[in-house]
Amino acid sequence: MNNQPKDPLRANLGTRRVPKLRMADFPNADEIVREGLLRAERPAEAVDIMIVNPPTPDGDFWIRTQHRVGRRTRENMVWPQVELAQLAAMLHPVYSIKVVDANAERMDWAEFTKLIEKYQPKYYLTHVTAPTLENDMLGCFLAHARGAKTIGFGTHVTPIPRETLRPYPALDYVLVGEPDLTIRDLLDHLEGKIDQRSDSMVKLFDEHDLLYKPSLNEDGTPNLHGIKGLAWREAGEIVVNATRPFIQNLDDMPMPLHEMLPLQNYRMPLIKGPFTFIVTSRGCPAGCTYCIKHVSYQYGVRLRSPELIMEELWGLKKQGIHNIHMYADLFTVNRDQVVALCKLMIEEKINIKWTCNSRVDYVDEEMLKLMGQAGCWLISWGIESGSEQILRHARKGAYPDKAERALRWAREAGIKNWGYFIIGLPQETEETIRQTIDFSKKLPLDIALFHVAAPYPGTPFFFEVVEEGWFREGTRWEQVDMDKGTVLDYPGLPAERLLYWQKRAFREWAFRPGPMLTYMKMVLSDWSTLRSALSVGMQHLSWASTDSGAPVRS
């Protein structure tokens, strides 16, 4: 006789037969959860859209903007996210907006997640770059899980929208190319607010796309197929719409909402106090094969008027910003614009300090003198290599003799020189690298940085690397980082040697009296740059102790 106690559950069931349950007998849990999120009462802080520069992958400062790629900054520079302020201006005041620059705020993922929960955005718009791809997708995952529709833009998604959307289901939409009009068009369609556009916004759409018309179905619901510059999902398939034309007249765009950014957090070596960017133009006519800017803006150039730039300068000065970087693919691309702007700055006595970039073949002595008189105190130059052979293959169009002349003119005009060099462009050898290092030490440079060449998707350099089989085995996009790694493996010049020479070049240039004095000035001019100088110094010491190879030549 079995004295074991009966299973109480079975005892309660008695002799009744338990029906077999099927998944089809249950409601769709996914739909119930999403409907619950949408129906839930949203807090007072809730916004329509959160526009973000997300936390960095490793806690370091990262340099990222709309038409550049992400890279760690060795000098702890904190770049202003003016393109986020510009995108916000495209949506204001129809939509409520929260701009978050987690990089500038030194925000970790836990704090960032709390912000998403606090503001509960209906839409989440983020940068996406090659070296930060999985990091950026983590932000999309967190926002998507909390009910937001996620949108990516930037230099990585523009050339490969399908290959970005396919492996990351938490990313709902991609803005291909220039994102400003596309984000406004997308939200207006999804939210049914096309009729709430101001006269200036209607003009912006009409004048910059002669064939534009809202894309609606017969019943008035949005038809996403007609939104130019959009990649999205439909019934499990990825759809890439027609390309959106560029905004031809940048003066028609609203002024960036700088006040939505943490302006006091933006820092740059040698600058005392905060600084920010003013975008003076978009595009560059040069044909450099490695440049990611052409992926976003191709080879045309569009200018802002000197008068509108001055209006923005005065607005920033009222907000307490006295240091400006004239941010452009090539600031000196149009001599007339630069000269007119400098004359206005002198006439109106705005008395600000500013920096810019340039090519060595797009300046002349007279213009540089005028720039110095108008407050320009530093120019960053893309010098790249001391080998004319390397520069010709890269279609740089500017050669060492012009670099020496332009930097000498700038020095005579009282302007400091910041030089950028690239190690590892096609046809590079250890001899040409040696040539570049020696050349860098001959130039009148105040700061020099050396990066390993990076074949970003969509550039001619990228296609050359694919064709020649120079990608290192097991390459992932996160390794396309100009400072801490490389995806390149050349015959006779593997990745390890490229990284060795990059570090050695920087060390050789920096361990000399002139550069060391510059770093001391960085410390003495503003204690906020102490960390920058110490960071660079620690890297020098690290490289000096870990590099292998022949003794360093001075």
Using the coordinates shown, work out and report the CATH topology of the largest domain.
TIM Barrel
Query: How much of the polypeptide forms β-strand, as a percent range?
Result: 5-15%
Uncertain stretches: 8-13, 532-554
Q: Just give the CATH class of the largest domain.
A: Alpha Beta
- Work out the number of β strands: 17
Radius of gyration from CA coordinates: 27 Å
Q: Structural class given helices, strands, pairing?
A: alpha/beta
Give a short overview.
The chain has 554 residues and is of the alpha/beta class. 37% of the residues lie in helices and 14% in strands. α6 links the parallel β6 (149-153) and β7.
Describe the structure in your own words.
- With 554 residues, this protein is α/β, with parallel strands linked by helices.
- The chain has 2 domains: 43-240, Rossmann fold (3-Layer(aba) Sandwich), CATH 3.40.50; 268-544, Aldolase class I (TIM Barrel, Alpha-Beta Barrel), CATH 3.20.20.70.
- The chain is 37% helix and 14% strand.
- The chain contains 19 helices and 17 strands.
- It has helices spanning 8-13, 29-39, 82-91, 109-119, 133-145, 161-165, 180-191, 199-208, 293-297, 306-318, 335-347, 365-373, 388-393, 400-412, 430-442, 460-468, 495-510, 513-525, 530-546; strands at 49-53, 62-63, 71-72, 97-101, 123-127, 149-153, 173-175, 230-234, 237-240, 276-279, 281-282, 302-303, 323-327, 353-358, 376-384, 416-423, 447-452.
- A 7-stranded mixed β-sheet has the order 4-1-5-6-7-8-9, sandwiched between helices. A 6-stranded parallel β-sheet has the order 10-13-14-15-16-17.
- Strand 6, helix 6 and strand 7 form a beta-alpha-beta unit.
- Helix 11 (335-347) runs parallel beside helix 12 (365-373) and helix 12 (365-373) runs parallel beside helix 14 (400-412).
- The radius of gyration is 27 Å and the shape is globular.
- The relative contact order is 0.09.
